[in-house]
Amino acid sequence: MERPLTTTAMQEKSFYQSKKLIVIGVACMILIPFIAWVYESFANRDALLFYALDIGQGDSLLLQTPHDKLILIDGGPNQNVLQALGDVLPFFMRTFDYVILTHPDRDHLDGLLPVLERYGVKNFMLTGIWKDNAFYRALIEKILENKIPVQFAEAGSDIVIDGVTLDILYPTKKLIGDRPADPNDTSIIIKATYDGRLIMLTGDAGVEIEKRIMESGADLHSDILKAGHHGSRTSTSDEFVSAVKPTYAVISDGRDNSFGHPHKEVVATLMRHGVNILRTDQLGTIICTLDKDSVICEKE
Question: Cβ–Cβ contacts within 10 Å for residue 86, how many?
């Protein structure tokens, strides 16, 4: 026969039950949003996500396919890319299917070094031009050390991942070992396509390269244009915008940058063509969602 609980014992039992309920409640408050976040991350969105990451005065762009394949294009000027990636990707996404360096200027290059140290990388694309830059040499050494397969960009050397096609428009030939006067004009130019939606990514290529692309006869029409060279007047010509016919133009630039990017002439050109302009210096990281029904770009 069980002995009846004393008043003190009953109070202790009640206290521990209340404490247990509080712990369970707190755990639910933490776990339910986390589970929802994980579910959303793994859910089949049937959409391509395009991020212009807020990394300061430079370029770092991320493509996330419907089944969470990751393509990173450039890494920005410093280690800001690590925080920017952490803000948009869950902690368990630690591998890039492709990393692409459009050209080896430091405002595109430097952030890729810590990326290669912190993340797995399955493939790397670059032009292979020569540039006397300690960070560039360190990047090449890290690629070799990690035994990452390398692809040298050339028009026609397209990449297809999870229904997303990266159509390499420029350079038109391999540039391995070349020593260009202006590395900007060796930038890898990519037209990314998913389910009939298109993004034009131009690196820092100038108006002369834009002209060559137009003269090639390629279909340049795209829903989104990543404005060349951070909105510099050396890129994003009136003729090129007319050929691309974008709904959105994304400008990757730093707040209060000393270059005056984006240039007022570029902004005026885009406005004249009725393009919606989104700038990382004003909005921070920008996210665009592309599917068969729509293209929506907004602050992340």
Answer: 11
